## 1
Amino acid sequence: MKLVIDTDPGVDDAMAITFAALHPDIELLGLTTVFGNVTAAQGTRNALYLAERLGISVPVAEGANIPRALPPFKPSVHVHGPEGLGDLPAPEPTGKAIGESAAQFLSRIARENPGEIVLCPVGPMTNVAAAIDLDPDFIKNIKSIVFMGGTLDRHGNVSPFAEANTWHDPHALDVVLQSGADITMVGLDVTMSLILKAADFSQMAKLNPRHGGFLQDISHFYLEFYKTVGEAGCGFHDPMTIVAALHPEMFEAESTPLAVKLDGEEIGRTYRTSGRAPVRVCLNLDVERVKATFMDALATN
Ligand code: BDR
Ligand code: CA
């Protein structure tokens, strides 16, 4: 699978990138960065660092630092730590981002690989909407979009209604939902059905001291945050999205036209609508197989 991840790394983003880098059936063609958990500049730095420590040579293109229409947000320091990687100090990668913006890179890589690119946005959708603005052929050129965000039947995680990625840029998501792309939503309905605890990160470290050990190192801060909101562990948000892109058969999805609230108390809420092309919304999963798929990638690399 030819994959591009649009990301705001981020502890669970780092898990997603690690899985993508290690899985033998994934060809990771690029990382694009966006504000969210961190600033876009921090995200670019973290993405470069993660790629370097994973030993992969992959272009990193920096994207939007502010939402499409809403005022800017501050990074989610209380969730992902001051630099986005839990307690870790700011990493110092040696490489640099490429000269293209995220939207330019997305447009080009899709054009160069027509019908082949699976795009996994695991942060706010700002860059993807920008690529749609930039390139009228972008949606035609990509294979599919499998995104982390939203919730249909579960409460939100930043408001009673909204999940963080949709909260951060509902206007961009609404552009994407009306684009006619082949879209799968991996939202809190499924990502909060797989809760990782400290013991799971210990297992990662045991299976793969270098890469699993790093994920354990960055997990402590994240797990502490989840405790403060009454959860027994952290959600498996972004890594699950990559697993869903690779193994849709491990998920049960509802096909429905989808929209997102653009203002008011429910801003960022994803909801069933009509009059649009349907998207697949994952509502159930084989928890053990999804988790095992992630752990196996660590174990064999
Ligand atoms: C999503 O928000 C971010 O904090 C995570 O990285 C994930 O993409 C979960 O709501
Ligand atoms: Ca993310």
## 2
Amino acid sequence: MLRSRFFWKLYAGYALLVLLTVLTVGLLVGRRITADALADIERSLLVQAHLLSDIAAPALVSGNGHELQARVRMLGASIDTRLTVIAEDGVVLADSDEDPITMDNHGSRPEVLAVRTEGSATSTRFSRTVAANMMYVAVAVTANGELRGYARTALPLTLVQDKLAGLRTAVALGALIAVVVAMAVGLLVAGRVIAPLSSITAAAESIAGGDYQRRVGSTSTDEIGQLASAFNRMAGELEKRLQTITEDRSKLLTILGGMVEGVVAVDSERTVVHLNTAAGRILGVPAAESIGKPIWEVTRVVKVGEALDETLQEAKEATRELRLVSGAEDKIVELHTAPLQNAQGDLVGAVLVLHEVTELRRLETVRQDFVANVSHELKTPITAIRGLIDTVIEDRAMPNETKTRFLGKVQDQAMRLSLLVTDLLTLARLESADGLLQAEPLDMRDCVRGSLDRFTASADEQGIELVGDLPDTPVRIVGEYEALELVVNNLLDNALKYTPGGGHVWVRLDTDARSAILEVEDTGVGIPREHHARIFERFYRVDKARSRELEGTGLGLSIVKHICRTFGGSISVESDAGRGSTFRVQFPLSAI
Ligand code: ADP
């Protein structure tokens, strides 16, 4: 409190006021008391002078000065006042303090002169007789209406002044006590005013420092109490608003953090003010560390700078397609920039939205390739059929034998077309909606047995030993019987197609803790490692000519992969050129 400037301002003003008041009152009271005291002394001297006049009158008439002198001396000593009796001609007849014979004529004394005209008079002056400042009061002594002399009383002024000094000291002491009490009370009152103000200031400083829960404790209902409760209300409101802002901000950050699209915000100086996780992933930078850096430090792609130029200089949106080099594969990213405005509509920065379209572009390419492949695959047998039929029609002289051979070829091509269309329809059915496949509990051994039965004859024909190895207990999974049979058929068909006569094909079904495992192993031509990743793509063949020759459509393995994925399974291959192949399929076991 004592360090408060406001306290000292308030207190100094108050102290000045108290001092001025006490000084003025003291002066006025002092003066008044002095005047009253002088008047009292004068009055008492006057009364004494009248009494002296009564006592002196007979002596003045009779002329017995000796007796009068004795009496005056005695009276003067008893009342501590100088008494003088002066004859009408100015000769001093009696004096309480001096011998009248030694005293000069008092006829010209101012108080004696004044009595002649006014009846009584007062004079304050230096007495040569007693050598001191004195107050004199003189009255006329009359007998039978005639002036006979003068009776004079006097008091040394030092005595008067002593009396006054005592009174002044009392007044000054009173004033001093009043000042001390007033200052103490002022200190107390100022303290009471300052203390709540100091606690409001301390609370305001705490809030400014981040402690938004700080409040001022005040129970008074005066203006300061009202100020405290208004302050508390303001602090409460501030806390609520801040909480709302914090919640909104964390919501926004959660939304931005959960977005697939990358979002980057930069200010007008192009310093990154926000960069979400997705943006960090797309640009290949740590999101948290990028905030506060200039954008060119985060990404040096020229098109980003161009788009930002457009947005920040012309306040308009811009779009670019970026190719970001990262690792083995380039990323294709669609960039969209938009101006960032504050509440007043001023341009304060820009927002960059990054949308990775690599997969989209890849799928587009796959789709275009697929259409081209389908057209090509369909066109080849159709062209062959047309050519063969045209030849038969045009060559009327063609021998029947050749005609039959030609028609046989037409039949082969038609068969090929039919296989292709069947596979395409199967693929279309699988891709159109996964829900179209039934999901029912089944014993996978049934599908494997069905396929083994179907291919035993052709394996025999090719001179390949086909061996099935199935467990004794049911292998329960959830799926569609026909679809799962298609998986085993395709794998078995491939194994027999790509294995020369004299080879072996094993079909093994087994389980581990969680999965059903189907393995189809052959001793055939094998697949070089570099093709492993691609053989599951549509129309991908390791050796096109051989595949066609063997009536392959290039769609079998992609159908198998699709079905595996639909029922929560997976497929993998182990193979090498000339070393045979093993395809392994896994399906989750069903609980029932
Ligand atoms: P296709 O109808 O041509 O057999 P698939 O999609 O079934 O098409 O197989 C894709 C390619 O994978 C085949 O063209 C072939 O080159 C290779 N392939 C598949 N299975 C085997 C296997 N058991 N042995 C060797 N090569 C195989």
